[in-house]
Amino acid sequence: MDITKLAASRATCLRRQVGALLVKDNHILASGYNGAPSGLKHCLDIGCLRDRQKIPSGQRHELCRGLHAEQNVLIQAAVHGIAVKGATVYATHQPCILCAKMLINAGIKRVVFAGDYPDQMALDMFGEADIQLVLFSPQK
User: Fold this and answer.
1) Residue (of 16, 23, 65) closest to 45 by Cα position
2) Which one is catalytic: 20, 67, 70, 87?
3) Would residue 70 show up in a list of annotated catalytic residues for this protein?
C-alpha cells in the first residue's frame, strides 16, 4: 500500500489524490494515479470545473477532465500488452461505480483499498460480481 500512496503523490486532481496498482503473482504489473489524459492540461493548471460548479464528491464524473487511478492502471496495462485477468488492484481509496464496472470486466478478482469513497452502488456491484473486497488495515 505504500507504493500505492507513492503513485497517488503524482496525482494532479485538486480534490483527491488517488493511486492504484495492479498486482499478480506478487508482481506489480502497472501503476496509475488520477489526472488528465496524457498531453492535456491538468486541473492543477486550469482549475476544477466540478469545484466551480459545486458538484459533490461521487457525482457527475463525466464533468471531470481527469481519469481515475483505477482507469489509468488498466489503460497502462493495455498500452503495454499486460494481461490483468485474475489480478488484484490495490488502491488508496474505494473505487467508484465507473471504475468498479471496468475492474469487473477486466477480470480483477480482488480489490484492496485504504480510504473510503461515497459509492454504495460500487460496493454492491463488486459483491454481485463476487470480487473480494479488502479494507486495508496497516500492520502495527
Assistant:
1) 65
2) 70
3) yes
